[in-house]
Amino acid sequence: MLRWLRGFVLPTAVCRDDEDYFNYEILFQDLDRNGDGVVDIIELREGLKNWSSTFGLHSEKDILKAGDINNDSKVDFEEFVQYLKDHEKKMRLAFNSLDKNNDGVIDTSEIIDALKSLGMNISEAQAKNILQSIDTDGTMTIDWDEWKYYFLLHPARSIEDIASFWKRYTIIDIGENIAIPDEFTEQEKRSGDWWRRLVAGGIAGAVARTCTAPLDRLKVMMQAHSFKSGRMSLIGGFKQMVKEGGIRSLWRGNGANVFKIAPEAAIKIGAYEQYKKWLSFDGAKIGTIERFISGSLAGVTAQTCIYPMEVIKTRLALGKTGQYSGIIDCGKKLLKQEGVRAFLKGYIPNILGIIPYAGTNLAVYELLKNYWLEHYAGNSVNPGIMVLLGCGAVSHMSGQLASFPLNLIRTRMQAPALEQKGTTSMIHLFQDIYNKEGKWGFFRGFTPNIIKVLPAVGISCVAYEKVKGHFGLI
Q: Residues with Cβ < 8 Å from 283, sequence gap 6 or more?
């Protein structure tokens, strides 16, 4: 519908108010399916769905919230026109900021420069695909009319919003590392949406971790117990856990895993913002390399602060029924029996594992993003929620695969059984595992770790959508 409207209007449009009014009336009549003179949320949703598949999730809520002046949960024609006029002013500012040479059109070089300033590097071919999704007359440039009618009811209104489509999808929580979001917008900071999104994401992560906790405990047991008792199968591992402690034992250690979400997220995000400031010069936007360095250092900072909880989580997961009554009891016994150093066991491989995890995670995400921009951006600048979830899940799995050997070393250094062996050095453990179990020994427990990724992504996504409404997020 919108593309048809552009094709109909653009040849004769000269941006006069009466012509705009006529165009707005066409759009409103198409939205107002029952002809009652107002548009509600259902009509908005159906209208956007029929016009294009490129609208973002819950775009109708954004439009209704901005356009409903009298707060009656409906938009009449006067409110609709006012919303579009206000939106057009924002679009004009965005267009002018992109048109650096003031020639009245936006070309590929200006798109590349704009996205680069936002930390998103794309090739000329990818910029052409983005441009083609907006260009209607085949000139390979975007004039004001094309820009205006593309973003008229589009969830994005500027090149910054196009870049924001590819922000890390922060609701993905697979029980290991918490993703670091890109910068919050000024609007999110002023409205307080930033902390609401973090809390909603934390709750969604807690739900996902709890639902997949049996697989996480099985992973820890396979990593630690294979050292002394040979291979442990998936079914055999579950049977052993249920036989030893009943069904409830499948969630042993999950409390510590959930409890550390809040402090880890708070420290990681705060440190990430601080490191970005230190790495930026003259207030300029930082690039991909600086983001990687900032993210890695933030991960090191957060893990250093909450690492004792990692040790407690592992000890609880490997403990026998009745050995510990809870997190506090486990911490007290560790301190009394093994001293303060017990809370730092496995710290070195844990910190070293952040580099391959963060590097591989970022590289795979950028690779998938560039592939999508190369092949599909001609149809839409918005990848959609499923593409973002898929890219996030694959990049997380790739990062875990790269860092898993160090993750396994960390678990075995944390495990109490090692004290009987007398082998606690990281180097000695590497040598011992390779000599006794071969190269595949470094990937013990990787199967349940991979199995839990898809349900964890799906559960965290659904939980986030359910929870965010209670925080007034759309």
A: none
Measured CA angle at 266 (ends 261, 271), to 5 deg: 130
Q: Check pLDDT > 70 for residue 57.
A: no
Q: Which residue has the tokens 């910054």?
A: 160
Residue 383, class by beta-carbon neighbours within 10 Å (0-12 exposed, 13-18 middle, 19+ buried)? buried
Nearest Cα to Cα of residue 133 among 155, 151, 109 = 151
Alpha-carbon dihedral sign for residues 193, 298, 284, 118: negative
Counting Cβ atoms within 10 Å, is residue 437 exposed (0-12), middle (13-18) or buried (19+)? middle
**Mean local confidence (pLDDT), 264-290:** 77
CA distance 96 to 118: 17
DSSP 3-state helix, strand, coil percentages of the chain (rounded to 5)?
70, 0, 30
Cα separation, 226 vs 213, whole angstroms: 20
Q: Which of 42-56, 64-78, 129-143, 298-312 is predicted most confidently?
A: 298-312
